[in-house]
Structure formats: structure tokens, C-alpha cells
Amino acid sequence: MTEATIASPVSLPAPRSRTRIVRRVLRDPVGITALAILIVAISASYLAGFITPIDPNATDLSSVLAGPSGAHPLGTDSAGRDVLARLLWGGQSTFAAAALATVVALAAGVPSGLIAGYYGGWFDAGTSWITNMLMSLPAVVVLLAARAALGPSVWISMALFGVLLGPSFFRLVRTSVISVRGELYVDAARVSGLSDARIISRHVLYVVRAPIVIQAAIIAGIAIGIQAGLEFLGLGDSSAPTWGMMLNEGFRNVLLSPLFLLWPALAITLVTAAFAVLGNSLRDALEDDEITPRTKGRAIKHIPHSEAGLVPTGSVAAADTDHLLVVRDLSVEYPRADGTTKRVVDGVSFHVDRGEVVGIVGESGSGKTQTAFSVLGLLPETASIAEGHIVFDGIELVSRTSGAVSRSRMDPLRGTRIAYVPQEPMSNLDPAFTVGYQLSRPLVKRLGLSRAAAKKRALELLATVGIPDPGRTYAAYPHEISGGMAQRVLIAGAVSCEPDLLIADEPTTALDVTVQAEVLELLRTLQSELRMGVLMVTHNFGVVADLCDRVVVMRDSRIVESGDVVTILSRPSEDYTRTLLASTLEGKTPRTLLLSDSAGETA
Amino acid sequence: MTTSNGPLANPESPLLEVSGLTVDYPRKGFGKEVFHAVQDANLWIGHGETLGLVGESGSGKTTIGRAILGLAPVSRGSIRFDGQDISHASRRKRQQLSSDLQVVFQDPYTSLNPSMTVGDILAEPIGIAGGSRNAARSRVAGLLEQVGLPRDAIDRLPREFSGGQRQRVAIARALALRPKLIVCDEPVSALDLSTQARILDLLLTIQLDTGVSYLFVSHDLDVVRHISHRVAVIYRGELVEQGEAEQVTQDPKHPYTQRLLLASPVSDPVRQAERRNARKAHASKS
After folding, report:
1. What residues of chain B lie within 8 A of the CB of A543, using their CB?
2. A558 torsion bin: left (phi>0), alpha (psi -120 to 50), beta (else)
3. How many structural domains are present in chain A?
4. Maximum Cα–Cα distance for chain B, whole Å?
5. Domain of A165: which CATH number?
6. Hey, are the CB atoms on B246 and A580 less than 8 Å from each other?
7. Per the CB < 8 Å rule, is B154 touching A581?
8. What are all long-range contacts of A30-34, with beta carbons under 8 Å and residues at least 24 apart?
9. Residue of A573, A546, A536 lying closest to B267 (CA atoms)
10. Half-sphere exposure in the Cβ direction for B227 (13 Å, CA)
């Protein structure tokens, strides 16, 4: 431990995430505008008595439907009442009614959603049934019926509307809770002896509170719209001023005074839009992490001979063409949000010969996979090759103008001369298609075989990779086969074109150790039969020892050392390689410390 | 299961004693068949001892750990912990047990609540157990030091830490109430090699300092050999071999354990070639 020991006094502050979200909304111009509109509208409504001294119900028949004047800034309506006063006082009931609907919807939906999601069972079944029923009811018809039965109270209709909106909270909360319930930290809380009430309030509600806030903002906007709609139809309580009623009056007098329609319409539009926009802004703030600017297509400046297009193949040194694959001074960069770049591969050089297995070994973040992906031309759009060469069989693959592997040069190679075996076999097979289809399709497309010939070849390949019943696997869907089997299928696909170079990215990491041994055996057999060059990315020294002829050790995006596998694994010259090998467990005295500097590092 | 696969000489009062444990899950659909995730498992763990439980994916090794923690249903058999039967312990009983029986999960990314600070995560179990706020604070500071995390970690969120550091937080949480047994469910398999070595060193140091027992569940025979006093091997829901760590992991008797050992590659190319040939010979024999 370093200076951290003497730093900062101990305290338990509130999590920072909430303030971070608020700050993000405030930075978002749309969000801050929406928030400002709402604050102004709500405070103006509740300060109506101070803003205008005029009683909203006071009639003045001497000035009916008058335009804006000193006494009436927004004019008067058909009964000579002050429009500004009515607009402000009307806002009070509008916001209160919207709040009522939202609170009722929250009360109806959130607790039931939490319980249904956390416990499931009969309560879940029952509440889900009620929810479905409520959602199938046409809200406006129910509200009209309620008004006929219970009288024209805005409070009753908004409370009822809240009940009708409850299902949207219920569904949201229930779904979120079901996904959180399976998290390990909820299991850990149960093992810690926390009661269900505490787990729900502390661990589960914490996670679902953000979507609830967003939904509430949107619901409030909807409630205002519906409320105004009912009043516009003349179904509201006519004793107090409301925006809907004003809209109705304005509509009736639109030919006499079109301006009178404008004010309530503007108020309703602004407020409902502000609620919706605020909801969206909150959602954007929660959707994590800053967006990094794309730099794709940026030309590389700091390479001297880069004035136009591709580096001519002729400029590659003669020695490079003797190897199957040459990677020289390769650097790969990603843009950061602050405009700088992050180098994930820095000045990497190595080569692979025909019939040779080269391993790239390193820990996570060492840049080993990024190096392999550069060679495959599979880097994400945002990445750029800042420097260096990738030469496959004498062909320069890096395009200087785009800062990426040239598609026109790579496309004819990939899947025919350069093949790839991924880490996660299951996620690399499309669950919607049979294994046979996914295996034979490239044979038809790439190698131009007929369908019958492609099927015959695919069955041969499945037999080659040691699948016991090729016909059955050919007809199977990916979920019907095991992970080891899926990796054999992908290897079959990779070698179907008899490639010169096979790039395998942690091909056995997701597999059980007994299956791993079989897959390594298969790779070894195919490699020697087809005399392929293999670039093997792995973190496992056992895999390196098993398969590789030479090995490249990477750390923090650079090469630490490289050489013959026996030399590197038994007599490494770099400290880092020694530390890595010291971390392997085979042959160590059990129950002794592996590393002397164990305490307080940056693991 | 044959007698030779049973536990070694069982001490008078082991900390944990699992006998005849069976965990069944109903299969989806209308059939009455059940899936035996674990069948008739017998094992015990002494005070201050580590039992390694090794098996491949789907073997039921994690289910045994979860049954002990009360997170998986016990269909038959008994689990005795510290002299009491906990196979069907109530929620209230579990809460009392939580100070003696703890867990470290595999995935340090989902086992910590992302919206709580490290300080709150560590203080929570102490608060449940009735500790005062001040006592909790000083305990949290002590825990951070014990697992080798900087003091300012207390105010930070889990996402600010690497996988290895998060696993240290999870270990600190498990240690918070000074438990007698920690179920470690693949605690190092999501970590890099050198990080794995550091976490294993940490678990070993903690055991030597506090005398805690571990049930160490892993798929990796090398890891289990290194950390355990005794090792049990599980294959398709059944314990096939159990014994002293060295014997089980270097000179296994059961064909499945032999296969497991020969399949695990070593980092010396010459010896790996020998092991490879031995594996092929073993495979053609069976």
C-alpha cells in the first residue's frame, strides 16, 4: 500500500450516481429547457394571486373578448373574464390533477410490481391478470362512464385514470425486478441475512428507481393531455377555470378572437411536451458513458510515405515476403471522449510462417486480441491503425488513407485464405439457422459449390473435426449441441476453405478442460495436415506449451519478449514473463504464497 | 458410490457435515421426471480446513455450495453446520447463521450492487448484525486493510475497480462478520493469471490469520490442488473421489479424475508433450 493509507478520512457518503444524473440533465440543453419550462409554469400557477390581482371568475361584460390591454395582458374571454388569471389559476388544478393521477398510478403499480417480480407465484399471476384486464379497457370510455355515474369531479376522474395507468408502472417494475432478482449481489444479501423488505428496498428498488422517475414524468404529461381533453368535451367541473375549458371556449369563439384559443393551447402543449422531453433527457442521462467522437476516415499524418492511398506492395522489404504473415510496428488507437487517443496496440512486430503456430500470450488489456483483430480487419469502426504494416503473403493490408485494413484487399482473403476461430462458440452461431446451413452457405457463396456438393463437403468436414454423427449435427440447431461441439463446428467452418492462416482467439477458454484437450488435439491435427500457419491468442501458458512453436508475450499493448516456446517458457529473459510463469500453479508447493509482494497491489 | 469414495476418517465434530445430500430440480414441461443436480453427496469440512470441490460445468459443484447457503432446495439428506441441522433453516435462522457462514461468488462484476459504495457494501452486514455506525466504520477500515485495498476505496463505487479489486471487496464483505466457513464459488476463474495468484495468496493468508474454513468450488484442478487440504471430485452430480489434496490431484484413483488431470495442460512444452501422450493412451484404454 502506498500513500493511499494515509489519505482521506473515513466517511460513508451517499452514492454519487444520483447527483451525476442530475448534473447530466442540467448539462443537456433540451433537458434544462424542459425543466425550466415546468418550474416556471408550476410556480407561476401557484403564485397566481401575486402575479395578477384579478379574480379569474370575475366577469366584466363591458369588455368581452377584448384583445390584450394594460388591464388584461392576455385579453378577456366571452364572459369578460381575465384570460391571464384564468390561465394561471387553471394551471393549479391542472398540475394538482396530474400529480394525483401520477401518485395513484405509482401507488397502484410500484408496490405490486415489486412484490410480483420478487416473489412471483400466485400474486404475480393474479396481478398480471388484473393488469392485462386494465390495459384492455379503453381509458376514455371508462372515464366517460365514471363521470356519468359519479359526477363531474376532476379528482375522481384523475384518480381513476391513475388506476388505469398503474399497469405501465407495474410492468416496468416487475420486469426490472425479475432481472435484478437473479443478480449475485441479491444472493449475497440473502446470505448476509437481510430481510426481504430490506433487500427489496435497498438492493432492488435502488436499481428500478430511475426508470420509475422517467415513467412518472411521461405519465404526468399524458394525464394533463387527457384531463384537458375531457374538459374540452365539456365533461369537467365548470365551477373552476381549467385549460381544457378555456380551449373549448376559444374553439367556439375562434372566428371572433383567434388569439383566445392560442393561450390554453400553448400552455397545454408546452407543459405536456416539457414532461415528455424531461423524461427522455433523464433516460439519456442514465444511458451510460459519454459518446466518443468517431474518427473513422481520418487520414494518418505522421507517416512520411503516406501521401496517397495504399503503400505499394513493392515497398515492403524483401524479407517480409518470405513469411506468411508479417506485422511490423503496428499501433492501434481508439479516440477518447476528451479528444486524445488511447493506444491499445503499440509498435507490435512479429511474423508467422507457413505451417507454424505462433502464440500471443498476455493478460486482459494487454492488446493481444486487438492485435489479432487488426490482422483480421475486424477492429470496430472507431479504432484506427495509426502506424505500421500488416503484410499477408506479400500483400500489404493496411490502407493508409482510411487508417484501417483495406477492405478491397482483405475481402478476397478473409474466409478463403485467412480463417478465424472465436472464443465464444455459441454466440458465433446464429440460433435461427441449422448448423448445416451455416456451414454450407459460405461454401456455396465463397467457393462456388452447388448446394448438393456443399452439403456433401460440410458433412465431410463435420466428420473431419471428430463429430460422431455428422448427419444429425448437420440438421441440428445451435442450441441442440454442446459448447465443445459448437467449437468443432466453427473449426470445421474455418478450415473448410483450407486456409493458409488460421487466427484463433482464445478458442478453448469457454470450454471444460477435458473438452479443451480434445479441441487442442483437433487443431494440432488439422494444422499439420493442412500445413496452416496459426496465430493463437491465449492467456493460458498450458495451451501455449501444448500447441505453439513460437510465442509472443504482450503487456500493456506492447511486446515484452518473443521467441522459441521452449526458451520463453523455461528460460524467460524478462521479469514480467517470469512473474506470469510464477503465477501458474502446476508444480508449485501447495498452500504456499505464490508471489512475495502479494499485499496491497493493484490487482 | 463405493466405500473407497467416502470421506476420510471423519473427526469427532466437523464444522460442516453434509450427508446424503440430494438436490432435485423439476424439469420443464409436464413430465414427472426431476433433474438430479446433486445426488447423495457426503462431505465434511473441519475447523480451519479447506475442502476443494472440483468438477466441470454442469457437474453440480456450484449447487452443493448453494444448498449449504440455503440458495438451492435440499430434497433429501442433511447439512449440519457447527452442530446444528441447517438443511431446511428458516429465514430467521439463516440470518443468525449469516455471521458464521458466508460466500464469495465467481463474478465480481455482478456480485456487488453497482449503486452502493464499497463502504456501504461492507457496512451492510455489520449493520444487520446490530453493530453501531462507529463500530461499522472502524471495522470497514480494518477489512479494507486486511484485503489489501486502499482506504479511500470506502467512498468509491464498484465500477471504479478492476476485477481483482472487486473480488477483494467481495472477500472483505464475506469476512465482515468473522465467519467460520466461507463458500468460495469459483472465486478466481474470472481473473487473470497473476491476479488469480494474488487472490489465492490473500485467501491463504486470511485462513492462516483467522482460522476460517473454506469450501472452495472450482473447475480448475491446479487451483484446487494449490489451495486445499482435501479435495472432492464431482462428476454428473455425484462425488466420485475424495481424499487428501495431494493424492487426489497427483495420483487419482477414479478414471474421471485421471482424465481431468491428464487434460489439464502444463506450461512446460516437454512435459506437456508427455502428458498429451499419456492422455491419448488413457483415452484409448477406456
Report:
1. 265
2. beta
3. 2
4. 65
5. 1.10.3720.10
6. no
7. no
8. A30/A277, A30/A280, A30/A281, A31/A277, A31/A278, A31/A281, A31/A282, A31/A284, A31/A285, A33/A274, A33/A277, A34/A273, A34/A274, A34/A275, A34/A277, A34/A278, A34/A281
9. A546
10. 34
Interface test with A, best of B244, B251, B268, B279 (most A CBs within 10 A): B268
Question: Distance between CA atoms of A219 and A108, rounded to whole angstroms?
Answer: 13
Judging contacts by C-beta atoms under 8 Å, the chain A residues touching residue B252 are: none
CA–CA distance, A539 with B192 (Å, rounded to integer): 8
Last residue of a domain, one of A268, A288, A308: A288
CA–CA min distance B69, chain A (Å): 7
Give the CA distances from residue A117 to residues A109, A110, A125, B26, in Å, rounded to whole numbers and listed in that order: 12, 10, 10, 21
pLDDT-flagged residues of chain A (< 70): 1-20, 287-321, 596-603
Query: Could you tell me if residue A387 is inside a domain?
Result: no
Q: Which three cell numbers stand for residue A346?
A: 503499440
Over residues A428-474, the pLDDT tens digits come to: 899 999 999 999 988 888 888 899 999 999 999 999 898 889 999 99
Chain B touched by A1 (CB under 8 Å)? yes
Q: Do the Cβ atoms of B95 and A599 come within 8 Å?
A: no
Tell me which residues of chain B have a pLDDT lower than 50.
Answer: 1-7
Is the domain of A509 the same as that of A365? Answer: yes
In B, which residues are within 8 Å of A598 by CB distance? 148, 198, 201-202, 205
Q: What is the ipTM of this complex?
A: 0.88
CA distance B3 to A66: 103
Shortest CA distance to B14 belongs to which of B61, B74, B90, B68?
Answer: B68
Q: Which domain holds residue A371?
A: 353-382+396-602
Task: Determine the pLDDT at residue B32.
Answer: 61
CB nearest to A203's CB, from B96, B113, B222: B113
Which runs of E-coded beta strand occur in A48-169? none
Residues of A in contact with B158 (CB under 8 A): none
Q: Which residues of A touch B260 (CB under 8 A)?
A: 513-514
Structure confidence at residue A102 (pLDDT) = 95
pLDDT number for residue A144: 87
